[in-house]
């Protein structure tokens, strides 16, 4: 059993190095994309949750996971599969992930308010001001929106809240 | 030796859990496949017509937003084609690009051109028609997804949960355009009224479940067609009231019944254009 726990740990360390290709400060683990690691002897099956369905980065992330895990000497066969059995939601992003998004200039996703009017409030990732406006709900990638901070006069992006309550 | 590391997840009780299980029941599979072709082809052509606005949208913010929406929607179509691939219908890419118009199950509304001209030559596209088509279809799609979330086919139910979360933003986007243009004065409102009439003239086809309608609901794939239409009507009444219009009642199917494989020349044109690169090398990896 100990061998397997060691291998699991090594895989986790490798996955921590697999970053979002467009936000290279945040790992796929911190984004909450890892659902399951299954070990059968030295064979590895990794279940990954896609964020947005049309996201072109998904295939790149898959390829990067494969090559990262294959770097571990004792690993045998590796399979990476996208799964929808659990939907990815923006609350899966870890605390560390949220901090790293801010470092990159992207506000982490606000909590989705099912009672609200659908519009959400988000603080500026640079100066933390709440005096911000939504410029475009849709941004340069499927998961992001474009906002503007009226306090520090910076445009910035925010990750869209995604919830099963929508 | 096997050890699993789980990070949560919920188990719902469903009738049919996997593609293998669905394949064991030929009647169930037949209805399921028909439904999936409708869903896949609808989103595919909806996204394709939307993508033809790239660089032509009324302003740059809209260009960004509309592209993002089309990218999402194409992703939804890919998901449905993927489910068909699992059921032995062939490769998802071939299903999307290589099927002829007579085999397509999308509603005619989604194949219609955006306006006169082509993308490369004199594209005089109709923004009012686009706004109404996209808003009405997306409202319909959101309601349909609510029903599909409860589908007896678990992979479809899971796909619906996923797609529905993205759909939320699409509806929100088109609602703003729809209400603002419809409540504008003069030409704006008139053009919107014309567009509403045009879209309404095709919408019965969108609502139709096609020839296997009763089988679909009998197998619990989604709620029955009549109840769904009623539910949709209640919702659309509010949409019409939001722009001070009386709900026009029943809609029509003027240009054909896409669910029966009856399509317009607009679909031929779309297939011809969108498959051009694919046909150059069908084995290419993108």
TrEMBL record, chain A:
It holds the Pfam family Zn_ribbon_PaaD. InterPro entries: Fe-S_Maturation_MIP18, FSCA_dom_sf, MIP18-like, PaaD-like, Zn_ribbon_PaaD. Signal peptide: none annotated. Residues 9-79 form the MIP18 family-like domain. Residues 114-160 form the PaaD zinc beta ribbon domain. SUPFAM superfamilies: Fe-S cluster assembly (FSCA) domain-like. PANTHER family: 1,2-PHENYLACETYL-COA EPOXIDASE, SUBUNIT D-RELATED, FE-S PROTEIN MATURATION AUXILIARY FACTOR YITW. NCBIfam families: PA_CoA_Oxy4. This is Phenylacetate-CoA oxygenase subunit PaaJ.
Automatic annotation (TrEMBL), chain B:
One of its GO terms (cellular component) is cytosol. One of its GO terms (biological process) is phenylacetate catabolic process. InterPro entries: Aromatic_CoA_ox/epox, Ferritin-like, Ferritin-like_SF, PaaA_PaaC, PaaC. This is Phenylacetate-CoA oxygenase subunit PaaI.
């Amino acid at each position: 059993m100990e061998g397997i726990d060691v291998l699991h740990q090594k895989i986790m360390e490798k996955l921590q190095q697999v970053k979002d290709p467009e936000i290279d400060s945040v790992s796929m683990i911190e984004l909450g994309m890892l659902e399951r690691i299954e070990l059968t002897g030295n064979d590895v099956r990794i279940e990954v949750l896609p964020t947005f369905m049309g996201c072109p980065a998904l295939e790149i992330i898959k390829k990067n996971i494969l090559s990262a895990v294959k770097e571990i000497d004792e690993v045998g066969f590796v399979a990476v599969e996208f799964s929808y059995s659990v939907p990815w939601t923006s609350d899966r992003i870890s605390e560390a992930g949220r901090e790293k998004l801010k470092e990159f200039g992207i506000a982490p996703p606000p909590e989705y308010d099912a009672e609200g009017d659908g519009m959400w409030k988000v603080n500026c990732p640079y100066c933390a001001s709440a005096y911000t406006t939504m410029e475009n709900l849709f941004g340069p990638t499927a998961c992001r929106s474009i906002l503007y901070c009226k306090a520090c006069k910076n445009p910035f992006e925010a990750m869209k809240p995604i919830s099963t309550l929508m | 030796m096997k050890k699993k590391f789980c990070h949560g997840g919920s188990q719902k009780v469903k009738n049919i859990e996997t593609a293998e299980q669905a394949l064991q029941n030929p009647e169930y599979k037949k209805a399921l496949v028909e439904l999936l072709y409708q869903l896949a082809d609808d989103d595919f052509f909806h996204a394709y017509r939307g993508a033809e606005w790239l660089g032509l949208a009324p302003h740059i913010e809209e260009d960004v937003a509309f592209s993002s929406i089309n990218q999402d929607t194409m992703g939804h179509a890919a998901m449905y084609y993927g489910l068909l691939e699992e059921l032995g219908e062939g490769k998802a890419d071939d299903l999307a690009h290589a099927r002829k118009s007579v085999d397509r199950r999308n509603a005619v509304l989604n194949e219609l051109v955006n306006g006169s001209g082509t993308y490369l030559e004199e594209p005089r596209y109709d923004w009012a028609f686009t706004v109404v088509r996209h808003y009405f279809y997306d409202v319909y799609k959101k309601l349909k997804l609510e029903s599909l979330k409860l589908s007896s086919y678990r992979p479809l139910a899971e796909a619906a949960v996923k797609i529905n979360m993205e759909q939320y933003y699409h509806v929100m986007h088109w609602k703003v355009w729809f209400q603002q243009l419809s409540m504008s004065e003069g030409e704006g409102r008139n053009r919107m009224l014309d567009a509403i009439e045009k879209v309404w003239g095709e919408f019965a086809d969108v609502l139709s479940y096609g020839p296997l309608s009763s089988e679909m609901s009998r197998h619990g794939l989604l709620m029955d067609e009549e109840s769904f239409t009623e539910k949709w009507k209640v919702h659309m009444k509010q949409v019409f009231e939001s722009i001070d219009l009386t709900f026009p009642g029943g809609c029509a199917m003027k240009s054909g019944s896409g669910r029966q494989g009856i399509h317009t020349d607009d679909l031929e044109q779309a297939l011809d254009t969108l498959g051009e690169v694919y046909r150059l090398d069908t084995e290419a990896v993108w």
